[in-house]
Amino acid sequence: MTTMSRTRQWGMAWVFLTLAISVHVIDEALTGFLPLYNSIVESWRESNQWVALPTFSFSVWITGLVLFVSALFGLSPFVFRGSAFLRPMAYVLGILMTGNALGHIGASIYWGKLAPGVISSPILLLAALAVLITTCRERRSATKSCSAAWRNPALGAGGRQRTNSRKSVTGN
Asked: Is residue 12 a contact partner of residue 126, using CB atoms and an 8 Å limit?
């Protein structure tokens, strides 16, 4: 694949994750996630003074998430251009959304009933994994320093043959 097609894949995965986050926010809003979240945080605070998680009113929570999703959509053109400054953000976002999805799925298993937000979690998980995979592929195709080394461990960065820099000493 060419660098352009890998960059396009990364952009498509970014948009897919942004849409999945949008659907997930709607799922959480419709299934009562926020009251459950706020009650869990308040009970943690009572038993552990060091817990610094915030609680939210619905309007603050939904406004923040709408702004967050809007910002992600706004960054999409930069992802489609392969902007390197977004790669760390893509990794962090992919990891956080993977954890978010697995948290909802794990809570459902633990509680024995559907947790708020679990319906959209499989889509969120797939989209997050797609961003992680395509970000890695795009980075490797853009830098070309890792792709050759992945295929042949004897190759160093940039696909050059590794050589032993130490000279052999025979003891004479």
From this structure: no
Separation CA 116–CA 102 (nearest Å) = 13
- 169 φ, ψ to 5°? -110, 125
The token pair at 1 is 């694949």
11 alpha-carbon distance from chain centroid? 13
Q: What is the pTM of this model?
A: 0.78
Q: What distance in Å separates the CA atoms of residue 48 and residue 118, rounded to the nearest whole number?
A: 27
Q: Which helix (H) or strand (E) holds 60?
A: helix 58-80
- The helix or strand, by DSSP H or E, that contains position 71, with its residue range, turns out to be helix 58-80
Give the 3-state DSSP-derived string for 89-153, with helices as H, strands as E and coil as C. HHHHHHHHHHHHHHHHHHHHHHHCCCCCCCCCHHHHHHHHHHHHHHHHHHHHHHHCCCHHHHHCC
Q: pLDDT tens-digit profile of 111-158? A: 999 999 999 999 999 999 999 999 998 877 666 544 454 455 444 444
Q: Where are the domains of the chain?
A: 3-159
Nearest Cα to 24, choosing from 126, 98, 117?
117
